[in-house]
Amino acid sequence: MSEEDNSSDNSKEEDPAFEHIMDLEVKKLEKSEKERLERMNELSSKLQITKENKERAQILDLIGEFSTYAEITTILIDIALEDKYQLCRTKAVSLLADLISEEEVKRTILQTLSDSSQQVRLWSVWALRSIIHDVDVRDILIRKLKFGEVSNRVKLWIIRTLSDLINDEEVMYAFLSLLKSKPNTEMRKLLLYYILQKAENPEITFVLSTHIQNETNKEIRREIVKKLIQLDNEDVNYALERLMKTEKDEETLELLKIKF
């Protein structure tokens, strides 16, 4: 940098007008932050003294912009775990989702996976998606999928969340186990969408070859056939030959004729 440039910078720093402008900017920022804190405290107080549930839910909508402040995070955690009004618990969980990397928030969301409300559980699964590579989160969601969840809608969300780990053996075993339990058509379609991506795996090939004999939905059978006809495998050939004798869907039969 030249002496002329240094001289210009120094003169700017010593310029009373420049210093005055900088002081004004700092004061504006301080005032803005002070007003934000006052607004936050006002909403926090209203939230804690208001008894009407719908009004409290509306306050939660407004308080969301302050969720990164520690005192608001604490309030949201308490609401997520203990509030009697389902909508408030749901909103609290959705706001905490942005803070899921914090250990206390993660523990809270793992607890709300067992909430009595389907909506709260749905939002809990959604919140965990960004940290699905956490082994503890993965294992808890797998157990929830296999044993602990009664809502098919929540199960679908868990499947979609775990699908980010489709190369993980534990996840694939969970999907195969659920498929064997004969879930509803929507769930079978979703499971097979992910399972078919790994159809070349011999263990998965065997499961698919067995499953196709019992699959009642023609669209699902057709998707399995599309994948299996690409494989050169004794189990596959045997399964497809058997299917060809009983299959009534014309489109599926045309696919089978490609193989045989």
Describe this structure as you would to a colleague.
With 260 residues, the protein is mainly α. The chain has a domain at 1-129. Helices cover 76% and strands 0% of the residues. It starts with a helix and ends with a helix. The relative contact order is 0.05.
In short:
With 260 residues, the protein is mostly helical. The longest helix has 34 residues, at 16-49.
Rg from Cα = 28 Å
Shape: elongated
Give the strand tally: 0
Strand content: under 5%
Mean pLDDT: 90
| Spans where pLDDT lies below 50 across 5 or more residues | none
Number of helices: 15
> Which percent range fits the helix content?
over 70%
- Helix/strand/pairing category: mainly alpha
Amino- and carboxy-terminal Cα gap: 79 Å
Described by strand count, sense and barrel closure, the largest sheet is: none
Sequence of secondary-structure elements: HHHHHHHHHHHHHHH
